[in-house]
Amino acid sequence: MATALVVGAGISGLATALRLTRSAWEVVVLDRGTHHAPVRLTGPDLHAARRLSALPCPLRYETRHSTVTALRPDRFGVTVGFDDRDDEWFDVVVCARPCCDAERLPGLRLRSWSRDHVALLYRAVQDTGIPLCAAELLADAFDIHTDDHAALAWWETTLKPHAARWASSRAADRTRTDAGQ
Question: Which SUPFAM superfamilies did the record assign (predicted)?
Answer without folding.
Answer: FAD/NAD(P)-binding domain
